[in-house]
Write a structure and sequence with these properties.
By secondary structure, the chain is an all-alpha fold. It contains six helices and no strands. The chain has a single domain, classed as Up-down Bundle (Four Helix Bundle (Hemerythrin (Met), subunit A)). The protein is globular, with a radius of gyration of 21 Å.
Amino acid sequence: MSGAARDPGPVRRAPDGRGPRLVNLPNALTVLRLASVPLFAVLLLRDGGADDAGRWWAAVVFALAIATDWYDGMLARRTGQETEFGKLVDPIADKALTGTALVGLSVLGLLAWWVTVVILVREWGVTLLRLWVIRHGVIPASRGGKWKTVAQSVAIGLYILPLGGVLAAARWWVMAVALVLTVVTGLDYVVRALRLRRAGAAATSAAGARRPPGARTDTAA
């Protein structure tokens, strides 16, 4: 998920000067997580959510997918196997899994649509913010963003499970915590993106002011 995305720093090179191989275990886990999304959706929506066994299996698939999200990023960083492919596909897989879970739960009437909309708008909005300022720098994941990811994962997992009684009531409070963290960290990303863009614009202006008079600003022949 977005808060647990891989460190977007430069790809580390192998001793021979070449980058890490595209086909490696972290990337394989990322692709496996993305491929598990259709299976998860089928299990969750089977018999209109009335199949308790299907929902239990959906919860298992969801938990395993979340575990690979944590493990592949850690493995890629520790072994120097980070690739541009992994940086691109990892957040896509996270959002596909989370988005499918939220939409599926709302389709089944287990989760209010406004909750799903708020979370998805925040997640995709942060992605667009990152792209908006990418030429000026990278917005790193915050500690709050990581807690948001944990809260969302736990809340979604509780909603997937066919629970009743106290546990069914408690899951709303977990989702409420996830919602608060989602909104607060989303606003924090907006502030940091604006600061980064302003700093980048100021640096560009300063570089232009230092350029000798009459120097060409284009690279055309």
